[in-house]
Structure prediction request, 138 residues.
Amino acid sequence: MTPPTLLRWKSFWLGILVLAFLGWGWVRAMRHVEGVMWMRKGVMVTAGHAYGKVDLSWDPSRAPSSLEMFQPFHELNAEHDRLWFPKAVNWEYYEPQIIQTQIAYWLIILVFLALWSAWLFLHGKRKRRKAASAAGLI
Prediction:
């Protein structure tokens, strides 16, 4: 019994779908600034993407209030001449408590591609070994 070909694996097609989604997000982040902001009890968390990067920020320095808010935001990118391959990872600290990190889409895609390729290789190796043992070759 031979193992199924790579094109018949669900993990292969799921990986293609994830790569397409990440690529679409990268192109969209070059033309739009969008994300969500969540505020509760004086802590503001923002997540989104812009200029080819995924942005996450944490700001606990707001004055405590009973206001609770979840708000999406979307704007067109005014600067169309940004780099397609920005710095991979950027950590910024403002004041003592505000933390902001940015991770470039190209790095996310490369890490996913490496992990997915390793998974496909090991999964294929395991399937071939199982097929060989079922056939009595091992």
